[in-house]
Write a structure and sequence with these properties.
single chain; alpha/beta; Rossmann fold; 4 helices; globular
């Protein structure tokens, strides 16, 4: 099986497990993650943190984002620009949130674009070495590559439920490893 086919199979399997979680279990796990990382993620006032509004059965990190904002972080959310590109727009209190593609929502075109210092990255699967499988479109890999080409090296924190961990992710040359992962069991650095 090719790495691409293996990733597709792992993605399908782990997303099915995530989808099978009862909504109340997902909510409790999401809130537990705030306790694990809300005060542990290293940031200075003014650091820019990219998050995401949950889609489908993703972890709801909005309470974590609120905690990080209370600690002085500036927040931004990804916005899909076309079939290959996302940008990160600043999330300001009271600013409107609009549909931004791929089932996502985020700040509108009037919001400033920012380069995140810390990226909270959604994923479908991850392993104990920090390799991740995204949703298959490569948006985050390309966005991270673009930031790195500008000399910007954001800290990458994968966000997932424990059921999304796999024994091994077949890493390919274009894949970007995570610095840490946050699940309901805790915050792990790689």
């Amino acid at each position: 099986m090719s790495p691409k086919d293996l990733k597709a199979a792992l993605r399908k399997e782990r997303l099915a497990l995530r989808d099978a979680m009862a909504p109340e279990i997902r909510i409790e796990a999401s809130l537990t993650m705030v306790d694990h990382a809300g005060d542990v993620i290293a940031l200075d006032p003014g650091h820019i943190v990219s998050g995401f509004w949950p889609i489908r059965s993703e972890v709801d990190i909005r309470p974590l984002l609120a905690r990080l904002r209370d600690r002085g972080a500036r927040l931004c959310l990804p916005v899909i620009m076309d079939k290959k590109t996302i940008v990160f727009r600043e999330l300001l209190n009271g600013a409107p949130i609009i549909e931004t593609g791929f089932g996502t929502t985020g700040p509108g075109p009037d919001a400033p674009e920012l380069d995140p210092d810390i990226m909270l990255v959604p994923l479908s699967a991850f392993d104990a070495t920090g390799h991740r499988i995204g949703y298959g479109a490569g948006y985050y890999d390309r966005a991270i590559d673009k930031l790195r080409n500008k000399g910007h090296l954001p800290k990458l924190i994968g966000i997932a439920f424990d059921c999304q961990e796999v024994a091994s992710v077949p890493a390919e040359p274009h894949d970007v490893a995570l610095d840490a992962v946050l699940t309901e069991s805790g915050f792990r650095h790689f």
